[in-house]
Amino acid sequence: MIDLYTFPTPNGRKVSIALEELGLKYTAKSVDITKGEQFKPGFLAINPNNKIPAIVDPEGPDGRPITVFESGAILLYLADKTGKLLPVGARGRTEATQWLMFQMGGVGPMFGQLNHFGRFASTKYPYAIERYHGESRRLLKVLDGQLGKGDFVAGTYSIADIALYPWVVGTKGYFPELFAGLSHVAQWLERVGSRPAVQRGMKVP
Questions:
Q1: Overall average pLDDT of the 16-42 stretch
Q2: In sequence order, what E strands does the chain have?
Q3: Is the pTM here over 0.85, yes or no?
Q4: Could you tell me which residues come within 8 angstroms of residue 115 by beta carbon, excluding any fewer than 6 positions away?
C-alpha cells in the first residue's frame, strides 16, 4: 500500500490520477498547505523541500521502502515500477519524457504564476499578469499544435498527458480566454477527462 501525501492542487492530482490509472493500492494522506502542514517535521522527513506531492512505497526497487518527491519524478517512478504509461522503446520514452518536462519546466511554472498574480496577489502588477498570460497562451498553442498530430501528447496515452491535464483543465476554468481557437486542446481535455481513472484521481484527497 503506497502512502500518497497530497492536497487538491494540479501537482497533487497528477499522482492520484496515475495511481488510479495503474490500479495501484494507495492511501491518500492530506497535507493541508493552507495551514502550513507541509512544514511539519513529519512531512519534512519525507520531502525536505516541503512540497506536495510525495509518496512512500514500502516495496521499492530493491524490496525496501522508498520515498519519492517531485511530481514528475513520482510519475516516472510509478511508470517504471509497473511498466505502464510510458513507452518501452527509447524513441517513444524520449518523446513522452520531453512532454513531461514541457509540463514541469513550462506549463506548471507559467500557469502557476499566472494564477498567483492574476487571482491571489494582494497588489495587481499589470506587467506580471501580461507576461504570464502571454506565456501561458504561447504554451497552450504549442500544445495545440502537438495535439493536432494525434489523440495524445506523445502519440499514446502516457504520464505526459497525466502531468498536463490537471494544470490545463484548472487554468481553463479561471482563464478561458487563453483557450480561444485551440480546438485540439479542447478535444484532448474531453478525451482525457472522460477517463474514469482521471475522474477518480481528480477527486483525491
A1: 98
A2: 2-6, 26-30, 54-57, 66-69
A3: yes
A4: 171, 174
